[in-house]
Here is the input.
Amino acid sequence: MNPRPLSALPAVLLSLLFISVPLTVAADNDSLFDCRVSVDGAKFDLTQLAGEHTINKTRELPPSTMVDSLRFDLCEDLKKLDKVADRDQCKTGTRACLSQINKKDDDPERVISVIPIVQSSSINPSYSAGQDSSKFLTIVFKGPEYPNPITTTPTTQSFNLTLLCDPEGNEDPVFKSYDGAQVQVEWKTKAGCPSKEGSDGGKGGDSDDKNPPKDKDENNSRSAGSGIGWFFLMLLLAFAAYFGLGAYYNYSNYGARGTDLIPHRDFWKEVPYMLRDVVSHLCSSVRSRRPANRGYIAV
Ligand SMILES: *[C@@H]1O[C@H](CO)[C@@H](O)[C@H](O)[C@H]1NC(C)=O
Ligand SMILES: *[C@@H]1O[C@H](CO)[C@@H](O)[C@H](O)[C@H]1NC(C)=O
Ligand SMILES: *[C@@H]1O[C@H](CO)[C@@H](O)[C@H](O)[C@H]1NC(C)=O
Ligand SMILES: *[C@@H]1O[C@H](CO)[C@@H](O)[C@H](O)[C@H]1NC(C)=O
Here is the structure.
């Protein structure tokens, strides 16, 4: 019926489909926070703040003392601590973890609550920046829910980090407050100063040097990702066109109805059997590589 070369088309399309699936999964990775922020044309390089930081805030609650201890790493997941019990720390994939620890005289410390504030799977940051008289960058990361300490209703946690521009600054971050929902941290640091493309940034000279290549990387991976998405879309369109045109062809030339409309129907009927053959072929080659087991296989 159909000319020979055309009957190879479905097989080609099918194999393209299988090849492209793992590619799209691997490329789906640019939603992660990579410590480079660009707001209203201003760029901030937070890689200089990478690494783990622990900051404490102490509240006197006689006869005991409560320590709110925030551990965070902006650019990577926190590592598990060896000397702390598993239930007393956040699980892997956490970037900011708040532990509330109660101390009373000579009694052993007691971890009251462990609150994951930022998780890298749902990091979702929002930014605002001041560029005029007071230069700063505020990042708010939304986190998972944790029961409110008073009402116990699940409350979305967030991490409000304000980086105040201080060209000479190399201070430690300061734990301002935690209200049961939002941790506020303020940090005087160079990283709060925007670095512009070109040379008029001046002060942030070294970060200017580091900026362009990494940004190009980001651009490249993003365009690669969208290229693959585009390829996938074209593939779907090709499939749709193939079935649409094939059905129309069968309909107008043979007056086909129902399943007869499917182009290369005989080929598509064969596909499940072909797959079965491939699988059984693979299985038998695996089995024949381990001939010792052969005698024991129950049939
Ligand atoms: C995403 O990228 C980061 C670093 O860029 C890498 O460490 C991580 O393994 C990647 N994740 C996936 C799922 O590819
Ligand atoms: C914060 O408090 C914890 C728990 O008491 C303590 O282990 C840690 O050393 C403190 N860190 C700093 C930087 O004060
Ligand atoms: C983050 O903290 C700053 C300083 O307290 C505040 O002005 C701002 O509204 C906070 N942002 C959010 C989204 O809560
Ligand atoms: C990515 O590339 C486009 C055009 O190629 C450019 O306008 C844009 O500034 C680049 N983005 C970054 C973050 O470098």
User: Anything to note?
Assistant: The helical segments are 9-27, 205-254, 265-289. Residues 1-6, 22-31, 198-216 have pLDDT under 50 and may be disordered.
